[in-house]
Structures are given as C-alpha cells and as structure tokens.
Amino acid sequence: MSTMGAEAVSASAASGLTAFTLFTYLIIPAVLLWIVQFRMSRKRLYELAEKLPGPEGLPLVGKGLEFLGTPHDIYTRVNLLAKDFEDKTIVKVWVGPRLLVFLKDPRDVEIILSSHVHIDKSPEYRFFKPWLGNGLLISTGEKWRAHRKLIAPTFHLNVLKSFLDLFNQNSRAVVEKMRKHNGETFDCHDYMSECTVEILLETAMGVNKKTQNQSGFEYAMAVMKMCHILHVRSTKLWLRPDFLFNLSSYSKDQVKLLDTIHSLTKRVLKKKKETYEKNKSAILNSIPIPSVGIKE
Q1: Environment class of residue 153 by beta-carbon count within 10 Å: exposed (0-12), middle (13-18) or buried (19+)?
Q2: pLDDT tens profile 13-32
Q3: Whole-model pTM?
Q4: Burial class (CB in 10 A: 0-12, 13-18, 19+), 128
Q5: What DSSP letter does each residue of 146-165 carry, written as one string?
Q6: What are the residues whose beta carbons fall under 8 Å from the beta carbon of 225, sequence distance 6 or more?
Q7: Domain locations along the chain
C-alpha cells in the first residue's frame, strides 16, 4: 500500500514538474520576444534619448525609485537630482519605460506650448477628466482645435486689460490678509490659491465677492482640495489605477468636492443663460415692426 502511494506521489511530482517545465519553456521565450519587439518599436526613441544629458538609471526602472515616498521626499530628491544638471537647458529622466524630458529655456518651452501638432497630453491628465470632462485641457485632435479656436479670443490682450482693475483689487486684498505675518515665515499657498480662485470666479464666471457668499468660498476650498487629491494621486503609484483609487477615501472626497464645484458652475451657467434669454427678448421687443398696408 505504501509502495503504491509512493509511486503515485512520484508520478504526480513528475507530472507537475513536466507541466511546470513546459509552462516555463512557453512563457520565457514569449516574454523575451515581447521585450525585443518592444525595444525595436522604440528604437528611434532610444537613439534620440541617447543624445540628451541625464542621470543614469537602473535597468528596467530607470530613476523610478526617486519618485517613491511622500511628496516632500520626492521634491527633495528631485531637487538634489536637478542640481547635478543645473547647467543644462534640457535633461532626460527615465522612469521605468517612460522618458521624461525637462526643459529649462523658455524659448524651448514656447516651441512646445505654441505647437498645434504636438498636443497629446501626458497620461496623468486623465485624472482631470471627472472634473473637467473632455475640455481643452485634456482633449486632443480636432476637438482640441475646435475648443482652442473658440476660447482664443477671450485671451486677447484687450480683454485681459479690461480685468486689470479686478486683478489689482484682489492683489491688494491678499496683501492685506498676509500683513498679519509681517516679519515671520509663513506658507502663502492657501492665500494665493484663494486669490487665484476668486479672480477666476469673477473673470470667467462673473461671480463677484458680493454675490459669492458661502457658495463662492466653498467653491474655492473645493478647487484647492481637488488639486491636492490630483497631486497625491500623481505621486502615489497605487492610486493611479482607477479601480484602486475608487476604493480609497480620496475617491469619496472627490465625489463630494466635484458636486460642490459642478453645482456652482451649473448655477452660474443657468443664470447666464436666463440673462441672455431675457436680454434677447428685450431687444426683440424693442424693435419696431413696420405696418404693412394692403393695397386695394
């Protein structure tokens, strides 16, 4: 009985070993072929990257380990890394299979930002989609061109000049708020963020301080907190996949914040539409209608 049991165990082990060996023989060549094909498809990218200065990274991960940890740790390590190349106007950094190129010269940045061809955004921009939808910031192709054409006139110099008084008022207001810190070190981020959102509300949405009330303040706070969530998600690798992010507390907070942001936006748009319809009706009613006589 024991002999038969031993033989059965041996046969099972041999069968398992054979299956494992067969699996290994199939998987390893497939993985190697995929790596070769992947690198061949990016041959041009590697050739161009070799011409750019940048830190040497580890195989496969590059300098990806530098981007692990808290936002403060990442910022500190990246700053130290940047000091080694502070005399360069362009620097490359490999983060896993992704090539990041950092530009220092404003003239180089202008070429990229003014291009109507190179308009595809980084994958991280998809984090903005629940907030901004498929708007100008994250769209590409014909949709981007159409939205860009519509919004371009609003950034005309004369339009921006018309908001100078508003910019000055908000600038003076934020300076007055910061006066209480006179002579001491403090974090100005919250002050400047609030000022930026207030200017946005007044210029782009027509919601001034007199009509903002609590809704305007809540909107400003929601925008700042949303920016924080987006920043955290971009620095924590485990929050990047949507299915993991949706399981986190950040996702629940995001839903509440977006409700606050979108609610105010919808109210403003509704009010603007009602004002437009009212003015249009008033204009139409003021147009005299000539009487048409019928010749007998």
Answers
A1: exposed
A2: 555 557 777 777 778 888 88
A3: 0.70
A4: middle
A5: HHHHHHGGGG-HHHHHTTHH
A6: 253, 257
A7: 24-107, 163-276
